[in-house]
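Q: Hi! First time doing this. I have a protein sequence and I read that you can turn it into a structure. Is that right? Here it is:
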Amino acid sequence: MNQKKLSLLFEILIVSTKLGLTSFGGPIAHLGYFHEEYVRKRKWLDEQGYANLVALCQFLPGPASSQVGIGIGVLRGGLLGGIFAFLGFTIPSVIALILFAHILQGVDIGNTGWIHGLKIVAVAVVAHAILGMAQKLTPDLSRKSIALFALIGTLIWQTAYIQVIVILISAAVGYFIYKDQKESPQSSMHFPLSRRFAFISLGLFFGLLIVLPILRELTTTNWIAMFDSFYRSGSLVFGGGHVVLPLLEREFVPTGWLNKEEFLAGYGATQAVPGPLFTFAAYIGAVVDGWPGGLLATVAIFLPAFLLVLGTLPFWDRLSRNPKIKGALMGVNAAVVGILIAAFYNPIWTSSILTPIDFVFAAILFSMIAYWKLPPWVIVITGTIGGYLMSLIG
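A: Yes, that's right. Below is the predicted 3D structure, encoded as structure tokens:
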């Protein structure tokens, strides 16, 4: 590897690490940080190219902001560029959440007021995410109706695959309703990946999705079971980190790997760190099996995102010109809103808002993030202190 290539990869790592240390606020905010750094400041790609890449990553399952970062890294520095961009953006929050999981070891978190405060933080943060996404993704009656269908389906039929079924139906509805949308101006981008490499990546994605559950049944190894649960969650979630919550909750809480208090405490703590919300998996893995479990969980939940981005980038420039694909994407995005509202009700609301005081505190935290525009880490600290004080009063 020549000096120029090494210098380029080092630049990608430094820039993405800076974003990983400073990008608070969830996937929508991350895309804003990316736009400022990669498009406006460094001009690694143009406005339309960035919009096309974001559209692809919104359509794919997985963490949209991380996938955009990987795509920009690939565009700038090939496969290694994508890996370095991912590591820089992800590692800071992974380290922070593994440390948080170790701090919680030996603490009876079911009886601590500050943990209840973190659970109320989750209520405020997800409520704010729902409003922002609903305004953007369900602006008309058709998409509001799709969101309502998704809400009803995921709440009433709480099975392992209902979310996938809801998303597929919503994509089909969006395809038929919006297939005649006018095309927007296009920007041609060349990603330095071959189509053969893309087919191999897609083959690995679907192959692991099929093989891992079989291996899980044939063995009693906890690591295979964990890898399967995280890989499936990363493969089947549309709409980013907030929507992975119900999938992970159903994989790990009913099985007894961690309790609901531990789960929601980690979700609240995840709001306090920058970077992708999918690093919540590192916390869960660390609670279950220490720091090796945290690293395994991180690899497993992000691997599908990597394989899908690498498998679709060589084809996206052509596919993005198809208005029917965009119509399906509009239906999927509307369904994401309904799925998020369902997750907001259960388990977040039902296990967090238990008294009128809880509701009042949640309203205050929501106002801090939605109206006063305070950063998420301030909300988390306020929630932690407020929860502790409420436990003393109670």
